[in-house]
Amino acid sequence: MSSEKELKLADRALASKFGVEIASVATAVPKHKVGQDEAAERAQKVFPQFARLEALYTNTGVDTRYSVEPSEWYLQPRSWEERTASFQRHALDLFEQVARASVEQAGLQLRDIDVIVTNTITGLAIPSLEARLMNRLPFRPNVERVPIFGLGCGGGVAGLARSVRMAQAIPGANVLFLTVDLCTLCLRVNDPSLAMFVSAALFGDGAAGVVLRNGNGVSDDRRPAGRAIVGPQGDYFWSKTEYIMGWDIKNDGFGVVLSPELPTLMRERLGEALFPFLEREGLSLADFDGFLLHPGGSKVLETAEESLGLSRDQVRYSWQILKEYGNMSSATALFILKEAIADGAHGRYLFAAFGPGFSAYFIVLDL
Question: Taking Cα atoms as reference points, which of 160, 280, 171, 158 lies closest to residue 230?
C-alpha cells in the first residue's frame, strides 16, 4: 500500500472517530405519480397561451414526478387556506415516514435523537412541523428543535450543513435533519406568467431524512459504520440577484420567481463561488470521484457540466433523480445522495445546491 493511500485511510479513520458521520438517509414521495406527458397535457389546459412552447416539457430531463394531490385538484384556483391545509397534512405524513425510516436505518430509537432540524420553503406551519411531529412520534420532550425556512432549492445541502454544525457542537449527539417541499401546491392556475408555466414542467413533491452522528466521546462498539463522513462546508452569496429565484407573496399563495438568466449566472459566475472554497480546503476538481449536484433542471445541469468541465457520468446520479422525480426543491439533493449510496459509490464527492439569494452551498463528502 502506498504511503499516500495509507495517509488517506488514516485521515478517514480519524474523521470517523472524531467527526460527523451520515448514519442514514431515507426518502419518501406521495402516492400520486405524474408522467411528463400528463403534466404537459395539464399545462395545455391551464396555460393555453403557451401552447407553442410544448416542447419545453419534453426537454426538461423529467419523465415522472409525484404530487400530494390528484391531478384534478390543481385545475382549480386554490386559497392560502386550502394550500396550507394540504401542506400541513401531507408534509407531516411524509416527515413521519422519513423520520421513522432514517432513525431505524441508523440503528437508533426515536428517543436517541438529541436535535431535530427541519427545513421547507413551500408552506407554513406554526407550531412548526417538527413540533407537530413530536405529537405523533415518541421523541424525548427535551429534544432540541431548529426549524429553517427560506433556503429554497439549496435547503437540502444548506440545511444538512447547519445540522452538521449542531452535531459538531455536541459530542456523542444524534441529529435528525428532515426536509420536505411540496412544490406542486404552489401551482397557481390564475398566474399567466411564463415562470409559472416553466415551473409546472419541473417541480414535484418529496421529503428526506438524514441522521447525523458525532462520534466524539462514543466508544467504537456503539457506532455502526456510517454511510459518509462529512467534510468541509461552504456558502456563497451573489449580491443583488434576488430576481433569479424565490417567491413573491400573492393573495392566493406563493408566486414563483424564476429568471431565464439563471443558466447564464451559473455559466459566468459559478467558478467565483466554487474555486475559492476548494482552494481554501486544499482541493481541486480532480480530487473528486463524482459530483452530487442539485438538478434545478436539465439546463442547470448542462451548464454546470460545461462550466466545470465535467462528464455526464460524473453527475449521473443527479440526472437519474431528475428523470425519476423532477425537481423537489430542497429534498432533491438528499435523493441524489441516497441514490449514490445505494449504488455503492465510494470516494470523495462534492455535494452542492443553489437557492434563492442567489446562493450556493457546498459540502465535501467521503462516501
Answer: 160
Last residue of a domain, one of 205, 222, 239: 222
- The cell for 158 is 444548506
Phi first, then psi: give them for residue 44, nearest 5 degrees: -65, -35
Q: How far apart are the first and last CA of the chain?
A: 20
Cβ-in-10-Å burial (0-12, 13-18, 19+) of 352 comes to: buried
User: Which residue numbers are catalytic?
Assistant: 153
Do 233 and 338 belong to one domain?
yes
Are 204 and 180 in contact, with CB atoms under 8 Å apart?
no
User: Residues 262, 121: one domain?
Assistant: no
Q: Are residues 61 and 195 in the same domain?
A: yes
Residue 8 belongs to some domain of the structure: no
CA-closest candidate to residue 226, choices 331, 137, 106: 106
Residue 180: name the closest of 332, 16, 347 by CA: 332
Q: Domain range for residue 25?
A: 20-222
8 A C-beta contact, residue 206 and residue 122:
no
Residue 8 pLDDT greater than 70, yes or no: no
Secondary structure letter of residue 225 according to DSSP: P
180: left (phi over 0), alpha (psi -120 to 50) or beta: beta
Cell output for 317: 446520479
Q: How many CA atoms lie within 13 A of 339 on its CB side?
A: 23
Last residue of a domain, one of 173, 192, 222: 222
CA 15, CA 191: separation in Å to the nearest integer? Answer: 50
129-181 confidence digits (pLDDT tens): 999 999 999 999 999 999 999 999 999 999 999 999 999 999 889 999 999 99
Quote the distance between the C-alpha of residue 93 and its chain's center: 18
> Counting every residue, how long is the chain?
367
Shared-domain flag, residues 204 and 239: no
> Same domain, yes or no, for 72 and 148?
yes
Provide the number of structural domains found in the chain.
2
* Cα separation values, 172 from 113, 221, 248, Å: 11, 13, 41
